[in-house]
What does this fold into?
Amino acid sequence: MAAPKKGRKVSGAPGRPGRALALITIVILALAGGMFASGHTTPRLGIDLAGGTSITLKAQNEPGQPNAINKTNMDTAVAIMERRVNGMGVSESEVQTQGTDNIIVNIPKGTNSKQAREQVGTTAKLYFRQVLAQTQGTPLPDPGKTPKPDPTSTKKPDEAKDPKDKDGKDKDSKDKKSSPTPDPTKTSQGRAVTDALKAPTPTPTPGASKTPDPKTTPPAQDPATAKLEKAFAALDCTKPEQREKAGDGIKPSEPTIACGKSITGKVWDGKSWDKFILGPAELEGTDVKKASGTFDTQRALWKVDMEFTKEGSDKFAKTTGKLMKLQQPLNQFGIVLDGNVVSAPSVSTVLSGNAEITGSFTQETAQELGNILSYGSLPLTFKEETVTTVTPALGSDQLEAGLIAGAIGLALVVIYLVLYYRGLSFVALLSLLVSGILTYTIMALLGPAIGFALNLPAVCGAIVAIGITADSFIVYFERIRDEIRDGRTLRPAVERAWPRARRTILVSDFVSLLSAVVLYIVTVGKVQGFAFTLGLTTLLDVVVVFLFTKPLMTLLASKTKFFGNGHKWSGLDPKRLGVQPPLRRTRRSVVPTEPKEA
Amino acid sequence: MSRLGSIGARLYRGEVGYDFVGKRMIWYGISVLITVVAIAGLAFKGLNMGIEFQGGALFTTPPTSVSVEKAKEDAEKASGHDAIVQKLGNDTLRIQVGGLDTKTAAPVTEKLAQDLGVPTEKINTELVGPSWGEQIANKAWTGLAVFMVLVVIYLAIAFEWRMAVAALIALVHDLTITVGIYALVGFEVTPGTVIGLLTILGYSLYDTVVVFDGLKEGAKDITKQTRFTYSEIANRSLNGTLVRSINTTVVALLPVAGLLFIGGGVLGAGMLNDISLSLFVGLAAGAYSSIFIATPLVADLKERDPAMKALKKRILAKRAAEAKNGPAAEGDAPQDAVPAAVVGPRPSRGRPASGKRR
It folds into this structure.
């Protein structure tokens, strides 16, 4: 829609009112038919009206990765989040991008929103980093947490790919492979590999000199290292804020510090934390093709199988090759998720392709780590911006309030129109009705079609739109009245008024539409629902005025005496409009006539 | 109604009318005054930004008999931050706590639920990170800027640049007044308010566009006549479209009033209330500005156009000549005898329409 065009076919002539009316009737019937056929007879309700939880996540800019927030990465993130949420059995939840850097996750009522929130919101970036130093949260006890590699590089390709779910096959192959398996406990300490020591550590390793606890630390003295050490010494992993913030703002290619749960038995005691100094990221989440927690029937324990991508496999081989020669804790790599060490297995052999991590896993922790490894490879870091939880009770209250408000607004408009326009208000009311039906059916159909959900602001938009729609009728009616005041009889008045009213309606609706579109594109969150409804109803307003109101006026003016002869209740009575007989035409628009003092 | 109808007719024909354009300085003055007050309010009092803009948590309980004071105490104890508690119409409590972020709020919800004796899952929560409001505000500013640029271009094409400029000034005027009222009254600014404010953009222009459209049409052959200056024609079309403007404004305000009544009166607070309040204020300001500000501004701008200046000169010369010839001219060519001002209030005319062209 651009500048209003002049001289469309309809202008000035009655056109074919019957056709237009038939067309819109067909459209309405088709939409209504489609609505009933599809079984979606009510618009889908948004979280704020139906109840549920809605989370807005915002992608964070990370140091060193300036252009990471782009469409591809956002789409990948959405896909991963969808898998995660649906993976936990929340099938009706939806994940969508909004604007350039926001993701909205809507979880309907009745599902475990807390769990979903944790899965979606907190699982973000995953890195494998070498452990450069570690302090035990608890007196370190047993030795056992180790990662074990499952050597697959050597193995045959097909085995390398075992799907985790097929237990049978999986196990078999694993067993074969896993000769070098380490085992057990997942905490920091693994069985140390003896040879360690000298492997060239890739990065400046922070020295432990000042820190009391780090057990092993190769000295290193540059300022960055010193700074890191200081931060490490100051880090208190028992404080949640510190855990959150540890390592904030550090690039993946630099050493960092982090906390991790200190698990000694099968179960975490709930309060012990280890802290780590970690080397630069060797692999990242995207290098893991898939991973899963599986039960090893032979050894009767839970473990996590990982399969790397080709590239990841090479990197992993290199890393493990380097680490296996080092000593505890340098032979460990930390699996760092969102800045937290989720596991820090030690390495005793070169691994690639596939690997397994064993340790003191329970079914839950093994599966969780599997999930994190497979789905943790979000390309971006996200931060929770808003979390809204609405109970179904409040939702239905709000819906009800919205509907009542709409009813009141509509009633007021109707009363005003009837009082002011008399018979003409009949045309306006029918047009509003048509507009209402169109809006409702389209909203109902857009639910399944594009996932449109009616939320509270959208309801507001629809109510506000009553005014916009009625305004178009007023513009047209006033035009007709002006023509009658110029002395025309109704039929020509209806036709002559149209081209000019049409122009006004198009221009002003275009401005409305423009604001709706701009709002929709540049804003986020609830504003979009509002903008969408406003835009939709503005478009429908044009449709209704062109295909319904105008043709109906033409018909009424020519076919009915009530309107055609300007009955005094028709709203078009020349006398009531102040026309004085004798009627006389004027050249009003060009040279306005001026009242002269009598 | 017929009285209204005939007033409409007389306005339309220019028999009655108000000299909006001629008295524009009064209206400009009033608007400047209001705008200054609004800006002063904004500068000295500032806006009362809602929790969504500062970060924090908003809890809504199910209907409960717990008192506001007790809830406040509990909320402050549970969170360690100041809380604002309101009792809403349906006996629910609305508790706002600042300074929480999305992570730290979860335990607070549980504690609060316990203290208030309400099941956790029955409490509605809205947790907002501190940067969310900033994000909304930034996007709103972007939207505002983009919209203004586009709409000025569009209006310049559909009408002309002077009208585009006048419309833009009127728009800024409406927004300033609305924001100023928010600052002065101390209404809370929420994302709902921002939605309402942004909607004013489209809506306040709707009115202006209706008036401009009439003006453009009225002035299309202006250079071919020597009876009216641009300002006079502008005033005439303004009066001619007055009924339309009033009607469209009233009809636009009625549904918003419905929202405001339910949102504010019954629910007590929330999105409905926030959107409708800012819309209501903005729409009212918009109606005022499209009549009293936008059109007079166009006339002012237009009178600087050389063609219009020349026209005005010719008209003044002609009027001076007619004034000399006086009554003589009247009998012969009554249509050319024009009073200096186009329309002013013309009280008490016996028979409205008849005095007119004859």
Remarks:
- Residues 458 and 529 of chain A are 5 Å apart (CA to CA).
